[in-house]
Write a structure and sequence with these properties.
heterodimer, A: mainly beta, 53% strand, B: 112 residues, mainly beta, globular
Chain lengths: 114, 112
């Protein structure tokens, strides 16, 4: 158990819909990262937050947004969903701002868009 | 942008054989991390290498960081079925807020 909690574990929805994925980092970790993992793309970095502020951005689509709340949990919002958004979405946390140490990953949220 | 190339993409070995995966970068890296993802699981941190020429061992696993800090390798001696999974290298991009970029991964299967 990494200590990172993600909900929901599985989600099935239709094209055009909007979903929210939730992540609670390890106790004490201030950095939260979001990754997308699909079969042909590996682990793609989406976005990083540190103590509520956005720190780094990857190739995150404009239809996607995220935030980190004062209690340090984070949410990833995916809107106008397309079939290609079907993937496993991982949240990870670390204790440092620049990730000089390891990332702890949650179990992931598997999104299926039909 | 920064990319790290990882090879091979797949490796099938007989139990007891050795296995090696390689990560290569066109630019000098500040550090490199290695993760393992079991089938159906999430990535789990294995190790971080920071120094030029660094070699670290964890039981049957040997990690190396190249002298020029542009490449790294993970070698498993005498593979076991418990080694099955995908091995990823990951590099830190300091000038972009500290994002961690993962290689494409090497999927290892072990035939008993």
């Amino acid at each position: 158990d990494s200590g990172v909690t993600q909900t929901p574990k599985h989600l099935i929805t239709a094209t055009g819909q909007r979903v929210t994925l939730r992540c609670s980092p390890r106790s004490g970790d201030l950095s939260v990262y979001w990754y997308q993992q699909s079969l042909d793309q590996g682990l793609q970095f989406l976005i990083q937050y540190y103590n509520g502020e956005e720190r780094a951005k990857g190739n995150i689509l404009e239809r996607f947004s995220a935030q980190q709340f004062p209690d340090l949990h984070s949410e990833l919002n995916l809107s106008s969903l397309e079939l290609g958004d079907s993937a496993l979405y991982f949240c990870a946390s670390s204790s440092t701002i620049m990730n000089t140490g390891e990332l702890f990953f949650g179990e992931g949220s598997r999104l299926t868009v039909l | 942008g920064q990319q790290v190339m990882q090879i091979p993409q797949y490796q099938h070995v007989q139990e007891g054989e050795d296995f090696t995966t390689y990560c290569n970068s066109s630019t000098t890296l500040s550090n490199i991390q290695w993760y393992k993802q079991r089938p159906g699981g999430h990535p789990v941190f294995l190790i971080q290498l920071v120094k030029s020429g660094e070699v670290k061992k964890q039981k049957r696993l040997t990690f190396q960081f190249g002298e020029a800090k542009k490449n790294s390798s993970l070698h498993i001696t005498a593979t076991q079925t418990t080694d099955v999974g995908t091995y990823f290298c990951a590099v830190l991009i300091y000038n972009q807020g500290g994002k961690l970029i993962f290689g494409q991964g090497t999927e290892l299967s072990v035939k008993p």
